[in-house]
Amino acid sequence: MNKRYSYLPIVVVVSIILAACSSRQNPPNLLMIETQKTIEQAQSQGAAQNAPVAFNAAQEHMQRAEAANSRGDFQAASSLLEVAMAEAEYAIAKSEADQAQKAAEQISQGLQQLEQEVNN
């Protein structure tokens, strides 16, 4: 073999190994923790009752992300976690909006009762 081409197989093998290593993604551990905390926050703020569709979707995507992570599909796990995070944040916002609406209605009813008492 020509001396000039004797290193070619080594260069090819090293290049393939480096390419394989660089394309491997790490598990989305931090995102998983953050998403779980956001889902727990949503639950503690009443999202399961006030925004059940979004809250349940967040939990379902979290479970699917955990399964993807377990089988080593870190890219799918990351994508599913991002969706779960968005759904949990939406559930929190909807729950807060519903609670604010209920509080506004109670205040309005209280003001109407005061007006009636003043007018009578």
Automatic annotation (TrEMBL):
<keyword id="KW-0175">Coiled coil</keyword>
<dbReference type="InterPro" id="IPR025511">
    <property type="entry name" value="DUF4398"/>
</dbReference>
<dbReference type="Pfam" id="PF14346">
    <property type="entry name" value="DUF4398"/>
</dbReference>
<keyword id="KW-0732">Signal</keyword>
<feature type="domain" description="DUF4398">
    <location>
        <begin position="33"/>
        <end position="106"/>
    </location>
</feature>
<feature type="signal peptide">
    <location>
        <begin position="1"/>
        <end position="25"/>
    </location>
</feature>
<feature type="coiled-coil region">
    <location>
        <begin position="83"/>
        <end position="117"/>
    </location>
</feature>
<protein>
    <recommendedName>
        <fullName>DUF4398 domain-containing protein</fullName>
    </recommendedName>
</protein>
